[in-house]
Amino acid sequence: MAQMTATVRAIETPVPFAGPEISIVVPTLNEADNIKVLYDALCDCLAAEHWELIVVDDDSSDDTVRIVREIAARDHRVRCLRRIGRRGLSGAVIEGILSSSAFAVAVMDADLQHDERLLPRLIAEIRGGADIAIGSRHIGGGSASQGFSRWRQLASNVATDAARRLLGVAVSDPMSGFFAVRRSTADLVIPQLSAQGFKVLLDLLVSARDTLKVVELPYAFRPRHRGLSKLDSGVALDFFSLIVAKASGDRISSRFLAFGLVGVTGLGVHLAALSALLSHTSAPFDVAQVLAAFVAMTWNFSVNNSFTYRDRRLSGMAWFWGLATFYAVCGIGAIANVGVASWVYGNEPIWWLAGAAGAIMGAVFNYAVTASVTWRRS
Ligand code: GDD
Ligand code: MN
User: Fold this and answer.
1) Whether this model's pTM surpasses 0.90
2) Structural domain containing residue 34
3) Ligand 1 pocket: which of 57, 175, 198, 242 to mutate (most atoms <8 Å of CB)?
4) Number of folded domains in the chain?
């Protein structure tokens, strides 16, 4: 009993330092030349605020972590969350937000493309009752042209348009990586978000549907301070699968979709290999078919490893071991495929229905089993 009273009193006792009101979450991947500049800029523009900086680093190979730790040694408002064996902008941002206890969390890039001078106003919007306040390049007074190459801007416009039409998102810049969110709102929505990919804001807006009060404030997207963009062509695949996942009400996971798309390319590879083997070698059909299947499986494995599972990418010896398990799982998947197809055909002799049922069964089996065997979380 005495102990219980003590526990209650400990929480009610005023503590000498109250926690920060605002957390700035910054995902980093090799941003050693930018992070100190960003920190200095934050110190200037947030002088009137009670803030902290959370850098979420995916094990950068440059000096990013060392530099953040140096800053943190002198400034208790700064901390570094170093993630090992994981990759991905969305996952990093989500973990950063989850590690905050502040009333409002702002997310921004490390490369100074986002104008930090907008932060006080984004935060003021949250204080004024908004759930999410977005730094937008696409409303009056905002611009994107300085910060993007022409083709990147075109891609960004197409993606923005697709998101707005297909997902019914009303905001002008759902692809923004610059926004503030009320932490209670984030806590509510985060369990529904995908840690894959790079579109945290879009995911946040779609998952929460119409229940949120969202405001947008314009800013000019600046050129990157130093270094190169970290987003490669894989983001197009991510983006497409996020759209399908969200449009299907999360019934089709974005990873399964990517896996399925890779599977379709694998069919093309299989046929190309089969035709090459039949025309250039004297291999009998059965042998050529088996060889072509191995070519296609190897293709599927390496493409899935590079794209679908880039956050868990296998390399070195693990790559070969992964390939071996992939062959094994697909072998069993093929048996499941034929089993289901024959069963359907036995009941309903419609060749395409039976064939498709078998193929879908095989794909679902391969996906489910390789997710936990080949690319299991370490
Ligand atoms: N932790 C972590 N892990 N950080 C990452 C990763 C990752 O896998 N990939 C990128 N980052 C960090 C970068 O270090 C940078 O601070 C920030 O995320 C944005 O990455 P950039 O490489 O600068 O992206 P961008 O400028 O091409 O794209 C930006 O603008 C887009 C506008 O359409 C990003 O803000 C996108 O989210 C945004 O959609
Ligand atoms: Mn950038």
Assistant:
1) no
2) 22-247
3) 198
4) 2
